[in-house]
Amino acid sequence: MVQVTEEVMRYLAPTRHPRGPVAVMEVPSSRTATRACLVAYDLSDPGNLGTLIRTAAAFGMDVGVTAASVDVWAPKTLRSGAGGHFATSIEREVEIDDLRSRGFSIVAAVPRGGADPDVLRGLELPAILIGSEAHGVPEDLDVDLGVTIPVDVESLNAAVAAGILAYEYGHVRRREGSGPGAELR
User: Fold this and answer.
1) Distances (CA, A) of 27 to 2, 41, 73, 107, 132
2) What is the CATH number of the domain that holds 124?
3) Helix or strand (DSSP H, E) at 131
4) Is 168 part of any domain?
5) Residues 6+ apart with CB under 8 A from 96
6) Which of 54, 70, 105, 106 sits CB 3.0–4.6 Å from 84 for a disulfide?
């Protein structure tokens, strides 16, 4: 650890009033998703992506990020991830067909007409797609299952939807002592 002056801290930190600590590091390489995962499908908000990463880590899931999503290692994404980047595998530039070929069930969060999220409890290896804030998951995307969170508003924030679906997938398995997050019991 090296202590620096306020001037150096302001230069290194991307925020207006840095609190420290600040780290300069090499960006880790992409890691292949092997567990149930949340997939950021063209997310454009770094705060939502960071929260999705933190949520996946909390529930023992991996993360996939499509090429058109915001940078996984952007400063705001890192701040919102609150350490989640280092607690789960993050596969960058993930391809949906590749996930399918590796045995994942492709599940899309859709605003209307999907199955109840409790169907996630029966899936062994879901890749849960969370669409962009403005457009969601494209309707013509080939998915195995659409799930809809029943709410009384038009839509939910992408990170909130990811959290609800991760919880729905994992809570029965945790209670049974298996699956993602079992150690959280």
Assistant:
1) 20, 21, 7, 29, 24
2) 3.40.1280.10
3) strand 126-131
4) yes
5) 39, 106, 127, 129, 141, 142, 143
6) 54
**Could you tell me the two tokens for 159?**
């990170």
Q: Is the Cβ–Cβ distance between 66 and 42 less than 8 Å?
A: yes
Range of the domain at 158: 28-184
**How far, CA to CA in Å, does 155 sit from each of 48, 104, 158, 169?**
15, 26, 9, 20
State the alpha helices, DSSP H only, in 42-109: 46-58, 75-81, 96-101
Q: How many domains does the chain divide into?
A: 1
**pTM score, two decimals?**
0.83
What Cα–Cα distance (Å) separates residue 148 from each residue in 53, 73, 181?
21, 29, 23
